[in-house]
């Protein structure tokens, strides 16, 4: 939940502002999670995975997060203030994690820069590979998508 459906706030589009409460209708456990905190996300997912692996079914997790940019390049973002955006940027999860890494001396700025460079190189390599690869054959579209080979909507 990034607070907006394109350019309209959740408060203006839904009677249920806390999305996790929708799970009540299904008697499903649910929780709201600070999606701006990597630690909170990790803890919530760990609990939900544990429940599922123990056979206790699914958990609906609503991650409260924020979209800094507009919905598209043509989005003028008139539905929110610059102060609101800046407030959320001050809680940016990546910056919070980096702060913890540096404070606890898990890695230096140089080590993080080296990791960033490796990631950037891997992404660039992957993009180049994708752009230079031939299009797959049409019969590949549904391959490895459905476990049930005779799924009724698969053509071919």
Description:
With 156 residues, this protein is mainly alpha-helical. It has five helices and four strands; from the N terminus they run ββαβαβααα. It has helices at 10-13, 38-53, 82-89, 93-103, 109-132, and strands at 4-5, 8-9, 30-34, 60-64. Helix 2 (38-53) links the parallel strand 3 and strand 4 (60-64). The longest helix has 24 residues, at 109-132. The radius of gyration is 21 Å and the shape is extended.
Gap between N and C termini? 38 Å
Biggest beta sheet attributes: 2 strands, antiparallel
Structural classification: mainly alpha
Mean pLDDT: 90
Percent in helix: 40-55%
What number of structural domains do the residues give? 1
Radius of gyration: 21 Å
* Secondary structure tally: strands: 4
**DSSP summary: helix tally:** 5
Shape: extended
Percent in strands: 5-15%
Write the layout of secondary structure elements.
Elements: E1 4-5, E2 8-9, H1 10-13, E3 30-34, H2 38-53, E4 60-64, H3 82-89, H4 93-103, H5 109-132
List descriptors.
5 helices, mainly alpha
What's this, in brief?
The protein has helices spanning about 10-15, 40-55, 80-90, 95-105, 110-130; strands at about 5, 10, 30-35, 60-65.
């Amino acid at each position: 939940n990034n607070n907006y459906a394109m350019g309209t706030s959740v408060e203006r589009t839904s009677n249920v502002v806390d999305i996790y409460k929708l799970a009540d209708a299904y008697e499903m456990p649910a929780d709201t999670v600070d999606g701006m905190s990597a630690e909170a996300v990790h803890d919530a997912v760990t609990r939900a995975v544990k429940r599922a692996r123990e056979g206790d079914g699914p958990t609906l997790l609503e991650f409260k997060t924020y979209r800094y940019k507009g919905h598209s390049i043509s989005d003028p973002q008139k539905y929110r203030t610059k102060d609101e955006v800046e407030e959320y940027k001050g809680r940016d999860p990546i910056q919070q994690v980096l702060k913890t890494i540096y404070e606890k001396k898990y890695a230096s700025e140089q080590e993080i820069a080296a990791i960033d460079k490796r990631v950037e190189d891997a992404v660039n390599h992957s993009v180049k590979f994708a752009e230079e690869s031939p299009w797959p054959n049409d019969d590949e579209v549904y391959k490895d998508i459905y476990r049930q080979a005779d799924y009724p909507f698969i053509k071919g």
